Amino acid sequence: xxxxxxxLLLFACFATSASAQEExxxxxxxxxxxxxxxxxxxxxxxxxxxxxxxxxxxxIKVLEVYPSWRKVQDPDGTxxxxxxxxxxxxxxxxxxxxxxxxIHDKPDASSAIRYRAEPGVVGRISKCDDGxxxxxxxxxxxxxxxxxxxxxxxxxxID
Length: 159
Hints:
- By secondary structure, this protein is mainly beta.
- It folds into two domains: about 25-90, SH3 type barrels (Roll), CATH 2.30.30; about 95-150, Roll (SH3 type barrels).
- It has one helix at about 5-20; strands spanning about 30, 35-40, 50-55, 60-65, 70-75, 80-85, 85-90, 90-95, 100-105, 115, 120-130, 130-135, 140-145, 150.
- The strands form four sheets. It has a five-stranded antiparallel sheet, with no helix packed on it. It has a five-stranded antiparallel sheet with strand order 13-12-11-8-14, with no helix packed on it. A two-stranded antiparallel sheet has the order 2-3.
- It is elongated.
- About 25% of the residues are buried.
């Protein structure tokens, strides 16, 4: 395949992904995909940076959509703008609260505890329903109460 054909194919894939994200209704959840992501005061590189995030998979909430930019809110409630290519649709969660949080074998408080996660730990979530989500923290899986992390809306179900 010629270099120009590969470039065109890559551009088409990126454009499709970007346009699909633009069609989403706000607010919605995403995560930082890059190892370094700058939050800015406005939707452009000419706006001052306010914070450099150095944590891939950190959950964020997308509040507004602007071409190539997203206004986001971080777990501390800080809002600002990030380039869309620094974000992913991957659902993640940040463990919150005081002390460790139990990660259960099943979505039931009486089920066995597989491990405990410290506040500040980030994991990937899936299969959320009835106040519980499946969480994967670096290959260790289990179920956690949604009240023990930041990364979902109240009553939200995720397949």
